[in-house]
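Running co-folding for flavin mononucleotide.
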Amino acid sequence: MKFVLCITGASGAVYGYRALQILSSIARVDVVVSRAGGIVLEQELGRSVSELREEFPKANFYGERDISAPIASGSVLTSYRGVLLMPCSMSTLASVASGVNINLIHRVCEVALKERVKLVMLVREMPYSRIHIENMLKVTDAGAVVVPASPGFYHQPKRMEDLIDFVVGKVLDLLGVEHQLYNRWKGGEE
Ligand SMILES: Cc1cc2nc3c(=O)[nH]c(=O)nc-3n(C[C@H](O)[C@H](O)[C@H](O)COP(=O)(O)O)c2cc1C
């Protein structure tokens, strides 16, 4: 199993971090952190990209400018189970929706869409403008799955980790990855 995990500059770096913890123990993970993603990672988790590299030595890290990385190619990306953008900024969403590739993350998303590799975009902004919503519709029409970074509360979370795991678990469900991150709703009592 192989995945590409992209961390962009939206709030919620912890979602990408948690996904990396889980996926790197069961699969090959190629990680791309955008420049802004690195800034938010520092701000929110107190970790630099270099520290992330040290913590996950088995993962392959690429910089956003590394446009010649193997994952930028369709013939390589088709062997991957999916591409995850966790979290996905409105700026990256707009680039993907318009097909303009400024960095490796945009290119990987474009390739995922053209090769029909599963693309999951965990978008985060509040509130949304009409442009954001239109861009979500565009990428959905093109084959991506847009997931809001909004946890549910029906599993009765007690800690912040429960909320994070709920969202990460939903993304892993979409990729067919088994996990025990949250208890699934089994229906209410009569
Ligand atoms: C602390 C911080 C939090 C941010 N949160 C968001 C956010 O939740 N959603 C968003 O779309 N942009 C957010 N931004 C702005 C993006 O980082 C900015 O638009 C950046 O250009 C995105 O670049 P990227 O898509 O290449 O990562 C945030 C920036 C900072 C510094």
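Result summary
The pocket of flavin mononucleotide is lined by residues 8-11, 34, 36-37, 39-40, 43, 89-92, 124-125 (CB under 6 Å).
The CA atoms of residues 17 and 39 lie 14 Å apart.
Job closed.
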